[in-house]
Model the fold of this input.
Amino acid sequence: MSSSLLEKATTQTAAIETVGLCKRFGQVTALDHVNLRIHRGEFTAFMGASGSGKTTLMNIMTCLDTATEGKVLLDGRDVATFDDEMRRKFRSEKIGLVFQQFHLIPYLSALENVMLAQHYHSVVDEPTALKVLEQFGMGHRVHHLPKQLSGGEQQRVCIARALVNEPPFIFADEPTGNLDEENEQVVMDFLKQLHSQGRTIIMVTHNPDLARSANRIVRLHHGKYLGEELENAPKV
Amino acid sequence: MLPRLIIQSWRHNLRRKALAVVTVLFAAALVSALLAVSIDVGDKMAREMKSYGANILIEPTGQAVLPALLGENASPLPSQDLLNESDLPNINNIFWRNNILGYAPLLVGRAKANGRDTVITGTFFNKSFPLADEPGYHTGHKVISTYWNVSGEWPDDEKTEALVGRKLAESTGWKAGDTVELTQSQRRLRVKITGILETGSAEDQQLVLPLVIAQKLFNQEGKVQSIRISALTVPESQLSRKARRDVESLNAGEYDSWYCTAYVSSIAHQLEEALPGTAVRPIWQVAASEGVVVGKVQLLLIVATVAALIAASMGIASLTTTSILERTQEIGLMKALDARLWQILALFYAESALNGLVGGLLGCVAGWGLAQLIGRELFGAALNFNWIVVPTVLALSILISLIGTWIPAQRIAKLYPAEVLYGRH
Done:
């Protein structure tokens, strides 16, 4: 790890910051006083074994879940002060989600799944949705239902859906967890490409090889921040 | 996008949608059939009740004070206490003439039949009585007393023919084809028995002849003693009961409303206006029974309809609950994609409304068939399917679908996307 890079990262204004973040499910502590700053343009990987709290951390950062203790600052604003509509709007404007299980609506075509994100964001723009799908090599499969697509294709639709509203933050939870090696590489290439375009990427993974695609690796263990390392210089 | 989403979503998992549609269909079929029956049952039941005989009796004013309608001791009264047969067409001139199903005049007296003292009744059997606007009009006991059971042939109203009551036939041995000689004062007539009559009442011990023959026998040409009328009426109401107590107590508006409604009392009142010098009185046992029976049948139908609606709503609620449980990840994803709650609810309510609409439409068709079946089985005739039933049933079908969705839809608000997307619910 380069100390100069780490210093640079910590002195920049944080896009996302967690302060003493805790999350408990009954008697189980999923996150235990996690302090973290993520800067704009970073490609950060949360790494850890199953149960380390990395997905929980991501869910709280994306406003899909709430903290039991501590706070999350998004662009310097405490999300705990947001009401439901503000939280929804913030997520809608700022965040794109990529899931391990893809979570495509089974009765909608690839194109309609992407358009659904537009529909809930603002207005449906079919040409834009088509264009995004084409960017991910799905131009010939736009009218296929999810069950007619391979895992890799479904994940590409999922990424297209996350990007169609052009959010600055992309959160990807084990994005290659259900893919074969070839598709894994394709998806990682897409994420690196998005990062190179200036987007902030936060990826959850337990795979050290994939984590090395990021320029910052945050390690979690039993809900605690274990440390981090910088693989590449952050893109600012 | 929402219509597209609704249509695609509705086409997905057709088996479950079919179950919801069938649930609504059964309820809608039942409700539309019951509604159709309920709307038409008053008329149908009233006609059915007419088989139990006349519900209005007209007598001369003087005779109306006598307690017995047609006592065994009845005998032709002096001419001034009888009605003129020539006044009968006035019955068909009242405001509610179309509700007059038929009538039968009566002339009752005693005479010797083959030397045996016998009560003789003269009446119409199926008399041709041409009216200005209905040349083929027939009236008589064949029309108004469908409970009269005749073994043999009905007599011709213009011939010297007769029916012999069952009990009289048993005691005398008279049978169809026999000829009986009637003697009254110095007048003699021979009538041919065409059939045995069984009514379960006084006629079972009488000889029943065409009115014109009885008039000759009793020397009362052109006269009748009383008239039995069968009229279609509506069940009694508070207004008609008030009128029944005292017509004078009605104000102008109430009087108009009462007069223009086919209550047995208002029809009786109009008959009295049309036939001066007569006392017209409803036969309350029959009239009241009609009202009570029709009222009770309608209440029963309403209860069954409400029960069917509640059952269907519960069925829909059960199906929607299962559907929501199956689609939690989809709902979670929509929330994660920043859908507003109402947008998700709109999808589920729209799907339910669509189920209700399709089920309701199919239910109307099935209900129409069911109503015809009920009509034929219960009343021996097809029911008039009132078209107001269709929009009513469609609205009810959609409503029960929405009500059935309402409670399970509360779960949607409580679903946390993080929990359902990562299987922690």
About this structure: Chain B has two domains: 2-47+291-421, 55-282. The first strand of chain B starts at residue 56 and ends at 60. The longest helix of chain B spans residues 284-326. The radius of gyration of chain B is 32 Å.
